[in-house]
Amino acid sequence: MATGKKIDTPLLDQLEKGPWPSFVKELKGMAVRKPMIQDLLGQLEMSYREKRGHWKHGGLVGVMGYGGGVIGRYSDSADKFPACAHFHTVRVNQPSGWFYTSKALRELCDIWDAHGSGMTNMHGSTGDCVFLGTTSEELEPIFKELTDKGWDLGGSGSDVRTPSCCNGPARCEYACYDTMDMCYNITMAYQDELHRPAFAYKWKFKFSGCPNDCVASIARSDLSVIGTWRDDIRIDQNAVKAYADSGMDIRADVIRKCPTACMGFDGKAIKIDNKQCNHCMHCINVMPKALRPGKDTGATILIGAKAPIIEGALLASVLVPFMKLDKEDDYQEFKDLIAKIWEFWDEHGVSRERIGECIQRVGLGNFIEEIGVEPIPEMVMHPRTNPYIFYEEYFEEGDAEGAEEA
Amino acid sequence: MATGKKIDTPLLDQLEKGPWPSFVKELKGMAVRKPMIQDLLGQLEMSYREKRGHWKHGGLVGVMGYGGGVIGRYSDSADKFPACAHFHTVRVNQPSGWFYTSKALRELCDIWDAHGSGMTNMHGSTGDCVFLGTTSEELEPIFKELTDKGWDLGGSGSDVRTPSCCNGPARCEYACYDTMDMCYNITMAYQDELHRPAFAYKWKFKFSGCPNDCVASIARSDLSVIGTWRDDIRIDQNAVKAYADSGMDIRADVIRKCPTACMGFDGKAIKIDNKQCNHCMHCINVMPKALRPGKDTGATILIGAKAPIIEGALLASVLVPFMKLDKEDDYQEFKDLIAKIWEFWDEHGVSRERIGECIQRVGLGNFIEEIGVEPIPEMVMHPRTNPYIFYEEYFEEGDAEGAEEA
Amino acid sequence: MAEPAAPKKKTDIGPPHYEQFLHPVVKKNYGKWKYHEYLKPGVLVHVAESGDKIFSVRAGSPRLISVDTIRLFADLAEKYCGGHLRFTSRNNVEFMTDQQKNIDPLIKDLNAKGYPVGGTNNSISNIIHTQGWVHCHSAATDVSGVVKAMMDELYEYFVEAKLPHKLKLAAACCLNMCGAVHCSDIAILGIHRRPPKINDATVANVCEIPTTVSSCPTAAIRPTTVNGKASVQIDEDRCMFCANCFTVCPAMPIADPLNDGISIWVGGKVSNARTEPMFTKLAVPFIPNNPPRWPEVTDVVKNIVKVYASDAHKYERLGEWIDRIGWPKFFSMTGLEFTKYHIDDFKHAGETYKRSTHIKFQ
Amino acid sequence: MAEPAAPKKKTDIGPPHYEQFLHPVVKKNYGKWKYHEYLKPGVLVHVAESGDKIFSVRAGSPRLISVDTIRLFADLAEKYCGGHLRFTSRNNVEFMTDQQKNIDPLIKDLNAKGYPVGGTNNSISNIIHTQGWVHCHSAATDVSGVVKAMMDELYEYFVEAKLPHKLKLAAACCLNMCGAVHCSDIAILGIHRRPPKINDATVANVCEIPTTVSSCPTAAIRPTTVNGKASVQIDEDRCMFCANCFTVCPAMPIADPLNDGISIWVGGKVSNARTEPMFTKLAVPFIPNNPPRWPEVTDVVKNIVKVYASDAHKYERLGEWIDRIGWPKFFSMTGLEFTKYHIDDFKHAGETYKRSTHIKFQ
Ligand code: SRM
Ligand code: SRM
Ligand code: SRM
Ligand code: SRM
Ligand code: SF4
Ligand code: SF4
Ligand code: SF4
Ligand code: SF4
Ligand code: SF4
Ligand code: SF4
Ligand code: SF4
Ligand code: SF4
Asked: CB–CB of C67 and B280 under 8 A?
């Protein structure tokens, strides 16, 4: 592999200007001591000139014993930019909530500086620390050093992808369950499924502590766990008064924006018809000092979100309206549910079909029947509008009156 | 054909009881002098006993020169009920708004008493006077007597079905155009299309004078014309005061129910932000003495409603948000539009595919392009959410910069 | 050899022009009405800009009526209304007069003959319905009977205007839904529940096999040969009983006494008032036919009406009420069972799944 | 012949446990936070039931950062926060301290190094984005560049919190939408506009033809033979440029400098606050790639932000604002063109047609 030589990048240079921190500056900084990045800059400048990417399609590389965690990447212009001929990424499983110490970060940096390009994504869209650019030979050494320091790879391919969670109880008063603990617990419980792709397609878990959904789980995860409560919103009427006194227009900003119109304000105190509340969070968001979620907390379990390819994007849909998430019991109820879903998916999923698409194909009604979950109206926006009902039984002429045939 | 003999109808008899007028009484009344109805009662009692109908599938009958207007019907139990072996219905095109004089009704009754069972539906779901039960031989005489008295048949089969309209300007203060006149005009303009099925499937016109849509046109017509206005709602503030004084809770019943929240009431006068009003009619419905549609009236033209068979039910969708309906010009703009739509349907419609289904298949965008209507956001609830855009042009490598290829 | 020309037939004359049928006061004030008021259930007055008034009296009708009854209506129209009357889009009959004093005698006469007056304002008006066993080959139930039984039970809501808002009912005897079932506050729908039985002996004679095969929306029908004759066969697991094949092929009857029955639907509307028009949604997937009075069906409907009446806000249509309280609450308040059949599995099924955490806990 | 056992590899250890990384004040008050306040743009304080406070300072990051920059963040964390820091779900870096006095010096240091502080409350936070030409074979544009160009233009909205509400942006380089493009307030999506070019010589070697054929959602691909070699062909009229075939078959490259570019989407959201989560909707179907600064794209986005800022109510997300004013008004206020491409024609297209007369006339 030849050394990257410095070349002019007039187009990229324009992206060094402006107030927002520049990824080009980041690249140039590393290019000084990393030929791989010097050549990457060259190739990228060529892309900017030609208006097209210069990477070849995929490439299977990885570490022994794992099926995922590394994305192979080869340049289609290795002749011009030999230093970035190989430019694989390594996905390192981030800690819950993306909390670090400077020490931990330095360890990661040192490993990557020694064996890779020195460039990273902190973080990738799924949540991993993404280490951008290394060669196949470096993969095993990287893996060894990572595991020695207590780090492991994340997911890629048709496996459990690296779960992620909002900072939840660590730094948010709204958290209705321990997102950080559950994300860690689940990540550990499914290490095999995470590292050795054996599914029909990818499977993403995301954990948000409340319906604000700060990790966008409802839009981006096959299995989304969103905290909620089922008792009454806690109200501190003194704090309500304080907000009012400080000039907040409670009627306009809170009461009238409540989507269920279940709130009232008489100028002094707030009243909530909690049976009508749909737990949207708005009022709590606006008045965090005065309003708090209830104490009977847990989560809504939703299933099947994904990006559009190929049947159109899906938002996750309600599977269990409320589940107590029992740490002491090691989240067993949740894990039992996952086991049943995966069993179903194993049997009915077809290759490259996410669970959301699979459920649409077989029908939500059939899906829940197979996994042993009762149909309830909370699962639908509204019951069916078309009359095409697949009744499963009918009477046969010979049947005794009242007897149904399967 | 043997004479219907009186038989016991213990099940049907139970439907003579109760406060609501009884169709069984109606049938029994006619059965006294109509063997056909006597046998119909017998067959119906048998249906009630056996829980199934006793009519054969279809049957093509009609009057010379017409392809529609008569529904052939044959009993599958002619041996038991010979008098109703033939039991065809004749659809007579009702007058606009179902207005009659006693004289006109008596003429119709006399014809039907002479040549048919004497039973009718006033009216059928499409709008016709439906004369229930006659034999094939009677069809021509019935037709002759009807036309002699100024009546004609309605539609059936793959033709223009009998148009219908709300009473509109005849007895309703909300009418934004002359539904009665337009319904008559359009019925007359398309007599050939109404009587001689030549389409891919049925085509229904319905005319409602305002968005209350009292003929359910948005749910049941291929082409729905619904009156509306585009200037300001007329307000009589004295009448507003009178309503308030009479105890109406204007804030609760009107202001807060306005779907666009574009109304205000200061205890005395109503204010409307007419640019935000979506013409839902609610406020006008509740306070007809105080509020009236504006004076710049016309109609929204919607296309494609239908019952569920077979792709699922459709509501009509907006094709022209606002069209002035010019009586003086003989509704030419409207007719030009219909001509273009039918031309398109002729070319692209497949058998037994309603226009609504056809539009879904080819895409609304392509449809309007072909009929020469500009795309506007009023036609959609929202722009597309999926990224699957069928761009119709792309640059070829050789193209001069900026030149697009078709 | 030209046939001798038949005497030219009168065709394409269209319906009579409506103008000749209008009451003089209607004709005079045509398009110039100012407002209306409800005088009592079934009685409207429309006031014109000129100050003229026209009074309308609305009477319930079973729709399936004899010429004798029509003549009775004609008699009454002559006695009180100068011969002027009309029918409504819900098959009620309306008598129009400019003489307020005629109203009560007219109502008395109507009532005496068994015709109730009502159906205006916040009431249950007449039920839109279809042919049933009286005339249609496709019927899975008899809607004339169901409607009579229902209106008997709901009578009070026709003659009084005591509901939160208008409540529009419709009934249809098969999935063709001739009427307004797909967009009514409450709808009754005759429904088959067993695949068509194929008459292999006649299929080839009376049906076009390719048309029959392609008529099936779920592709459940395949061509086959039985005893050397071309026929079709049905993959029963795929059949959802739509009867579309029967419509194009009479040799595939689907009606079946043991399995035909009724489904109940709620929450549709047509008007644009406040909310956009809405489709009806499934409330009860299946109740077996129980003629002549379908008591299980009328019980369910009456119960839904009662719960709606007790809980909805003023001016809230049934579907708007459910939207406010939520479907879980609707099912718990009415005591109806929610089953997997309520969960859509047709073309746009996914669009009906609940895609948010907006949940009310009860 | 058994291979000699390799030294047992350490695997499946998972990520380090988070607890060791938590700030002592965070650890102490874990799950016992009471409320938060915004001290200024980019600075939050969370107050615990115990009365303890933790201050967070949020700095913008280009996400594509070098180990040197990470080390810089580590330095600052050590200087002001006892070494504690985190990253957010939008790739900002957050420094946490229990010392309010550390906030301003920290901000000063960050700013000096070129890292802006902001992105909290009613601001535009960092843009979620993906690999682009930097690393992905599928990219139709370079999102790192687009995002840098956009954030330069939208900078004021990051460092000040002056919008009606949070405004969440995302950018993705192809229809795979690695990120949150399908549910963002404003999204930038790299898009192809020309069918894949088939490399007939290599298809048979590098692709499974049946898989390739079935990968196409519109069934545009058919098997064929070219010069005696098995290959595939595309019905160009049916292709909607999704690149799914390229994902399974490298011999069908779709990237094309002349026709790749950017589409702009608006009005999505993820949170359940007030309204349910919503998908983004098409605003601009296509703008050609114009690196390095995509001025046409940033113009459109800036303009949308400005119109939103001037017209939306407090606490109204972009999609909620459009729902209130209506799409016709959105297009007229932003001056964007509505074309036939905006009208859906995919699977559920019909469900997006306007099925009511609820129209606002302007
Ligand atoms: C006579 C009739 C039109 C006709 O040409 O035949 C008619 C007449 C009137 N309608 Fe209607 N509507 C008539 C069928 C309908 C229908 C169609 C249907 O019932 O299938 C609808 C749409 C149904 C739906 O939405 O599902 C309809 C939705 C309305 C509405 C909207 C109600 C709402 O808020 O959703 C109003 C306004 C109101 O009630 O406040 C209305 C208002 C009116 C007014 C007040 C209009 C007026 O100022 O004259 C009339 C008296 C209403 C009453 O009965 O209380 N009319 N009206 C129809 C009477 C049918 C009957 O015998 O009961
Ligand atoms: C008589 C009537 C019902 C009634 O009791 O009022 C009726 C009766 C029939 N309809 Fe209908 N339809 C009648 C109004 C409707 C309506 C309502 C309307 O027009 O406003 C609809 C729903 C709106 C629509 O068109 O979508 C309707 C949707 C159907 C359909 C489904 C069409 C579809 O595209 O979904 C069929 C099936 C078909 O066409 O094959 C159908 C077919 C039929 C047939 C011809 C049965 C068949 O399978 O061939 C019925 C003949 C019954 C008979 O023996 O008389 N009928 N049909 C109505 C016509 C009377 C009239 O002329 O006034
Ligand atoms: C730090 C972070 C979580 C994390 O674990 O990393 C976070 C933290 C907070 N979010 Fe969030 N949200 C974070 C990403 C999100 C996301 C996901 C995303 O941006 O992709 C969402 C959903 C996005 C969407 O709806 O499209 C999100 C929707 C909210 C909302 C709902 C806003 C709304 O009305 O729609 C709130 C409540 C509010 O703002 O009033 C909220 C409120 C909050 C609060 C106030 C919660 C608290 O009490 O601590 C935190 C500070 C908010 C702020 O920045 O103004 N957070 N928040 C994420 C910061 C990202 C960033 O760097 O900007
Ligand atoms: C690196 C990353 C983008 C980034 O810059 O952050 C990424 C990169 C790729 N994604 Fe992704 N996806 C990444 C997060 C996502 C997300 C967001 C998420 O996970 O929350 C999504 C949308 C959510 C979802 O899963 O639906 C996403 C939806 C896809 C899809 C479409 C999947 C679908 O079912 O619709 C594909 C296509 C595929 O799987 O064939 C895809 C495929 C890819 C591939 C492997 C390209 C391919 O066609 O094989 C990309 C490799 C790029 C490279 O060279 O590194 N990527 N991908 C993200 C992973 C980093 C990490 O581990 O933290
Ligand atoms: S999702 Fe809820 S609990 Fe989690 S960080 Fe956001 S606001 Fe806090
Ligand atoms: S959480 Fe939402 S629905 Fe519940 S009271 Fe607050 S604003 Fe209303
Ligand atoms: S649709 Fe409008 S104009 Fe026609 S009768 Fe009904 S309320 Fe009157
Ligand atoms: S017509 Fe409807 S939208 Fe318009 S002001 Fe009246 S209630 Fe509001
Ligand atoms: S609904 Fe069905 S059974 Fe009833 S009249 Fe229409 S086609 Fe016949
Ligand atoms: S009834 Fe409908 S679904 Fe069943 S076979 Fe016939 S056409 Fe197909
Ligand atoms: S969005 Fe497309 S091009 Fe961008 S990283 Fe994901 S797969 Fe690659
Ligand atoms: S790009 Fe998509 S639509 Fe076009 S041929 Fe490939 S798979 Fe089919």
From this structure: no
